[in-house]
Specification:
This protein is mainly α. The chain folds into two domains: 1-168, Tetracycline Repressor, domain 2, CATH 1.10.357; 169-302. The chain is built from 15 helices and no strands.
């Protein structure tokens, strides 16, 4: 496969699919379904194929518009390096592999005996329908565009829980949604500032936003995310009282991570590519690793 075809699948953005592992992380020490480790890794891979297909479709549809964008004009389809027909074939192959793999997880390898957990394919298809609707329509509707993106993150978290046959606290799912909204509004802010007067030509919904409005929405979602994560740590029914007591010690990592991201958005104008921020900003990377380690230790030793 040529480097251009790999690039059009946006592998750097596959880091978003790591959220599939959230259910596994927060159920350390708890009972899971058979082959949980292998199944969650496969779920991550199939979500990468599915999201890759959606990114290809998005670039096919937006190719003409992307040519006027200072950054997106370099994308393989917009630049003419990859033809739309070749990209379409690639998207179809990725979809076939993703859906076939999800069916295998539901009815083949380590298939859950309880029907409620045999719904990974349903969640993945829901993600595909949502993201395709976003590409075709929702991304042009103010506020609803970011809500749709946040829903995609929520479906990733649900998929990761379903595939290993565990439940996740409603507070955690709400926190995930709010964090996704926070990051999404930060991205819209970056696009608005970067494109200035031409923002509406690139994405219609941007003309309905303002920097002040987006700053307010970021503040609301950041505060709400911290609150919901805090409530999750000491109310989760999945954890013992001892675990809940020590899970509260992970709250400072979440607070610092959100504050650091706000700093990067406002002082370094880094909100346009969140996947790059998470993989390149060393303080943020160290904080995330320490948070994950702290959660794992609390649940393992608690």
């Amino acid at each position: 496969m040529s480097p251009a075809l790999i690039t059009v699948m946006r592998p750097k953005q596959w880091a978003k699919n790591l959220l599939v592992f959230a259910g596994y992380l927060f159920t350390i020490g708890m009972s899971r379904g058979p082959h949980a480790e292998e199944r969650v890794i496969l779920a991550f891979i199939f979500f990468c194929f599915a999201s890759g297909a959606v990114y290809v479709l998005n670039d096919i549809i937006d190719a003409d518009r992307d040519r006027s964008h200072p950054d997106k004009s370099a994308r393989p389809i917009a630049s003419g390096e990859v033809s739309k027909s070749a990209a379409g074939i690639l998207a179809a192959v990725l979809l076939i592999v993703a859906i076939s793999g999800s069916l295998w997880l539901d009815y083949g390898f380590g298939s859950p005996s309880y029907p409620l957990y045999r719904t990974f394919t349903l969640v993945l298809i829901s993600y595909l329908v949502l993201t395709t609707s976003y590409t075709l329509l929702l991304k042009n509707v103010v506020i609803l565009d970011v809500i749709a993106v946040a829903a995609g993150f929520l479906l990733r978290a649900i998929a990761g829980a379903v595939v290993i046959q565990v439940s996740i606290s409603e507070w955690f799912l709400l926190c995930t949604s709010l964090l996704a909204l926070f990051i999404g509004f930060a991205k819209r802010r970056h696009e608005l500032v970067l494109l200035e007067d031409g923002s509406g030509e690139h994405r219609r919904s941007l003309s309905d936003y303002s920097s002040y409005l987006l700053d307010q929405l970021m503040t609301i979602t950041a505060a709400a995310a911290i609150m919901t994560y805090s409530l999750y740590t000491f109310t989760s029914e999945n954890h013992t009282p001892e675990q809940r007591r020590y899970m509260m010690a992970t709250i400072p990592f979440v607070v610092y991570g959100i504050f650091r991201y706000l700093y990067l958005v406002h002082k370094r104008d880094a909100g346009g590519q969140p996947e790059i921020v998470f993989l390149t900003d060393k303080p943020l990377m160290v904080n995330i690793l320490l948070w994950a380690l702290a959660v794992a230790l609390v649940l393992r030793l608690g």
